[in-house]
Write a structure and sequence with these properties.
This protein is an all-alpha fold. The chain is built from 2 helices and no strands. It has one domain. The radius of gyration is 34 Å and the shape is rod-shaped.
Length: 102
């Protein structure tokens, strides 16, 4: 029996190409599902962060009012800012926020 080595080589090559295409397809499918899972996780995290935005804004507003008060008081008396100035500023900020809620 005579073997046609050229045809056998082409057949084996085509089988290897088909196997590599199948493997790449499976790997791409896995990557796409991982990306989908990551996107879903990111959407959940964005939703959680959107809920926290008002809390973060209120904290920043409180800190700005307190530091502004402390700086103004210390500047008017021509001295450095003290911890007492900041405490008074935070009290003022809390009172201001309570007033604005009403």
């Amino acid at each position: 029996m005579k073997v046609n080595w050229g045809a056998l080589g082409i057949t084996i090559g085509l089988i290897l190409i088909a196997a590599s295409i199948l493997a790449m397809g499976l790997a791409a499918g896995k990557s796409i599902s991982e990306v989908t899972v990551r996107l879903t996780t990111l959407e959940d995290q964005i939703f959680i962060l959107e809920e926290q935005i008002p809390i973060i804004k209120a904290g920043i507003k409180r800190a700005v009012i307190a530091q502004g008060y402390a700086f103004s008081k210390a500047s008017s008396e021509k001295r450095a800012i003290t911890l007492e100035d900041l405490k008074e500023g935070y009290v003022l900020a809390d009172e201001f926020n309570e007033f604005m809620r009403e």
